[in-house]
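Write out the bound-state structure for 6-O-phosphono-beta-D-galactopyranose.
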Amino acid sequence: MRFPKKFLWGGAVAANQCEGAYLEDGKLLSVPDMLLGGDVNTPRTFLPREDATAFYPSHEAVDFYHRYKEDIALLAGMGFTCFRLSINWVRIFPNGDDEEPNEAGLAFYDAVFDECAKYGIEPVVTLCHYEIPWSIVTKYGGFSNRDVVDLFLKYARTVMTRYKDKVKYWLTFNEINIPCMHLGGLSALYGLGVMEEEDINSDHRIPLTELKVDKQRVFEALHNEFVASALTVKLGHEINPDFMIGNMIAHETSYPLTPDPKDVLACLDVDNFHNNFCGDVQVRGEYPAFMWRYFRENGIDTSFITEEDRKILKEGTVDMYTFSYYMTNCVTVHEDAEKTAGNMTLGAKNPYLKASDWGWQIDPDGLRYTLNVLAGRYPDTPLMVVENGFGAFDKVEEDGSIHDQYRIDYFRGHIEAMAEALQDGVNLIGYTTWGPIDLVSAGTGQYAKRYGFIYVDRHDDGTGDFSRRKKDSYDWYKKVIASQGEDL
Ligand code: BGP
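---
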């Protein structure tokens, strides 16, 4: 058998990208609800005040909120043994600081988890997949305010207690390292809920790439998230010692573009700053040495990293390292190198790789490499790939079929790479593809960038009836799961 018997097979979504129902049953606004959709070349835009005529993709998304039964049945049809989804913090604490949780929100996730249980699907729950309550941004200044750590813990305690017998796998913050990959506004706002007053109160649309951001504040906010994550791990184990609680890193694997030692060193720096910084804090429980150098050289005042917090980080290390993997990038000091569009950042173009329509370079071998590197760095920590997928324009044929061979090819390569990594001895416990059902893209806000095995009839011009249909990749993934990765 190529994959272990207990290997978790499934897919991953985020509440803000699939649920819709953005003001139903007591829910209030979260960060993504304030963002307009962009297109292939235009990033999402922040709009300070709601505009009824504007298109906010998360407001309806793909209507999972009302269609979760149909959707989970479709996922079960592929043989999923796990399903990664996030709890939308604002459904539970609509203002972020409410005294009591919102029962309607809690009841919704009870129903979702019960539906999963019906099919023997293990939920893998992200506590915060960019869904920071909007009032936490405006009233508290996001995670740069230490009080928000307590608000998050109250939320974590509420849901972990409520679902302690329904959910075993938990992830604290989605892609906690994105503020390091891109020190600009999108990641500070998405990841940390940090935005300057002036931008919050502006009266015009602001492209996310243009949001102002103060570096010192970003590192303080990120530190508070580390502390919140570590305290959540501790708390979770008190609630149920069987919980497996992980971090979640947007793993940006990089290669030096040339054998120039300067490129090799530049690549080392990128790897350390983008990946290993957050990984080390959450797996090893301490800030790595290279970060102290970075802080020193960049004039960051580190007095916010107190002795007490360092103890908390040590006591709250994660049970598993989970990560997203879509592409790889090259790093070079040579300025004439051709650039490519990375997930959140710009890298140099790898001449050996093809790219998606969004410029994401496809690299299955890089996944085997990444898994081996991570297993070497964190030998005692199980790994899980919790996002991997191919965003593409899909075409519905006249007879309703969708021939997404490119997606099958992408997954085949990456599953092959995981099988190889298992042979290498890597402790890999599961795999969830990104967006098993089409949803709204996080980076562009588009419906057109589709990831699913299941197509959703919904488009960026607001048309479509939300109906679902299977793509060719649906039966293919079903076969892969049924054969434990044997039949690719
Ligand atoms: C990751 C996010 C997801 C998801 C994915 C694909 O960064 O965790 O939320 O959206 O990327 O990105 P995009 O939607 O921009 O194609």
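---
The chain has a mean pLDDT of 94.
The radius of gyration is 21 Å.
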